[in-house]
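User: Small ask, check this?
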Amino acid sequence: MTSLHSADVEASVGLCLHQPRRRVPMEPFWQRFITGAEEALAARGHRLLMKVVASLDDEVRVHARWHEEARVRGVIVADLTPADPRLDSLSQLGLPAVALARAEDAPGFSTFTDDNVEIVDRVVAHFAERGHRHLARVTGPAMYVHTQLRDEAFARACEALRIRHERVEADFTSDGGAAATRELLARADAPSGILFDNDVMALAGLEVCRELEQAVPERMAIVAWDDSVALQLASPTVTALAHDLTRYGRGATELLLDTIADGRVRTGRAEPPRLVVREST
């Protein structure tokens, strides 16, 4: 199996991520997604080439270099943005790809995603059942399509239930989650529940609540978009969405391999996550 840290090994499929380098090793989403991707590749005798870069433009250049050097036969594209330059570049290169997005956000490409709207609806309904009338979302970067979809779904779900709502943008990291939580708790009329866009930020928010003596869940309820062992072991334990991320990575990769094999554009849908209710709500 190809080392994820070796950039000079022949590989069949590439995964290039534009994000803070400190985010990848600490975020269970990518750990488990990559495990699934490697399982799918190994089953067909292929390997994974992975690289972390600082920007979208860097990712475009990496894709072009991989293609020029014939190092990959296709790539997985994550964290799509509106009018994403990677898609135009991949089209010009003729390099097959699967985008972790809706079909309408990546026309002409195979796509694999989950239903962000249905997931948000379930979480907001859970908060409402527990009597919350003012909620917030601590989000990933607003430039991402999936952040925008979740924002829109969150606003619609809250408004349908006449729940006040707000958002604070962060960056999926512990520091970002902590800063966003402090900002919300410093407001004169703070929300009573927060949905965090990943487990890392939720854990940081929980720690800030502890530092500021804001009891969870009595004063502040917390839900994380991704589940992890850390959330299960936290005190209090944290309510979370349990995605099968290994299966997610496997499914997206198998879809890409099928697209590489025959050139046909496909769409795939991840299994919906379970809402695992714990002490934080």
User: Anything to note?
Assistant: The radius of gyration is 19 Å. The longest helix spans residues 245-262. Residues 116-242 form a domain with the Rossmann fold fold (CATH 3.40.50.2300).
